[in-house]
Amino acid sequence: DTEVTQTPKHLVMGMTNKKSLKCEQHMGHRAMYWYKQKAKKPPELMFVYSYEKLSINESVPSRFSPECPNSSLLNLHLHALQPEDSALYLCASSQVQSTDTQYFGPGTRLTVL
Amino acid sequence: AQSVTQPDIHITVSEGASLELRCNYSYGATPYLFWYVQSPGQGLQLLLKYFSGDTLVQGIKGFEAEFKRSQSSFNLRKPSVHWSDAAEYFCAVGALTGGGNKLTFGTGTQLKVEL
Predict the structure, then answer these.
(1) What is the mean pLDDT of residues A37-52?
(2) Which segments of B15-72 are extended strands (E)?
(3) Taking Cα atoms as reference points, which of A83, A84, A85 lies closest to residue A108?
(4) Cα–Cα distance measured from residue A94 to residue B64, given in angstroms and rounded to the nearest whole number
(5) Shortest Cα distance from B113 to chain A (angstroms)?
(6) CA B115 to chain CA centroid, nearest Å
(7) Which 8-state DSSP code applies to residue B90?
(8) CB pairs under 8 A between A and B
(9) Sign of CA dihedral B43, B96, B1, A82
């Protein structure tokens, strides 16, 4: 099983809302990632968790708050977002070794009104 | 810092024709190179990867790529394109940093297939 699942598929929220994105994998991977992808652009790394600890934060604004409650789950909590935060948010997982493949989920399409 | 260049933003080929997508990388050490494909509104699917060994790498869906260190290139090829290959293709270079493989993607090449 090489599947990474993400919920919801689509999310529309106002700038004052609080919402969460969820990502799950059951491949035994110990590294999990959040990427942001704007239309017609490549994915941009936001956060990396390694062994359930935040190892990389690519200077992401604090209105994005990641959480890794266990080795299979990764959440992204959203609060007070801006319209420019509208994008496809992709989750990925891998083993921790540098040579391992990152497996991507289908993404959550976020629209901020 | 690593970087990837995909010089072709758009490519159009006829179904059945051969395909080559270009990728050039910049990385100080031995690169870990990947090709991913993305259909509209979808996640990324790995086509193939190169870490070491044979410089000609076979992937899924009939794709292959050749690593050329002297040219810092990792071009993707397919001998006969199918209409279902129309998608966005991303080349990426990976580096282990702070735990996990940090991927740096190229800007992507949009492939259109004419029937």
Answers:
(1) 94
(2) 19-21, 24-26, 32-38, 44-50, 56-58, 64-68
(3) A85
(4) 23
(5) 18
(6) 23
(7) E
(8) 77
(9) positive
Q: Where does residue B14 rank: exposed (0-12), middle (13-18), buried (19+ CB within 10 A)?
A: exposed
Contact in structure between B50 and B32 (CB atoms under 8 Å): yes
Q: For chain B, what is the largest distance between any 2 Cα atoms, rounded to a whole number of angstroms?
A: 46
CA gap B64, A26 in Å, rounded: 29
Residues 6+ apart with CB under 8 A from B104: B1, B2, B3, B4, B92, B93, B94, B95
Please state the φ and ψ torsions of residue A72, each to the nearest 5 degrees. -105, -15
Distance, in angstroms, between A80 CA and closest chain B CA?
A: 25
Q: What is the pLDDT of residues B31-45, one digit of tens each?
A: 889 999 999 878 899
Which token pair is B34?
A: 């990947």
User: What DSSP string describes B65-86?
Assistant: EEEEGGGTEEEEEESS--GGG-
Tokens representing B37? Answer: 């494909």
Nearest chain B residue to A58 by CA distance is B102
A96: nearest Cα among A58, A45, A51: A51
Q: Residue B77 burial (CB < 10 Å; 0-12/13-18/19+)?
A: middle
pLDDT at B104 over 70: yes
Helix (H, G, I), strand (E, B) or coil at B59: coil
Mean pLDDT of B19-48: 91
Integer Cα distance of B27 and A90 in angstroms: 25
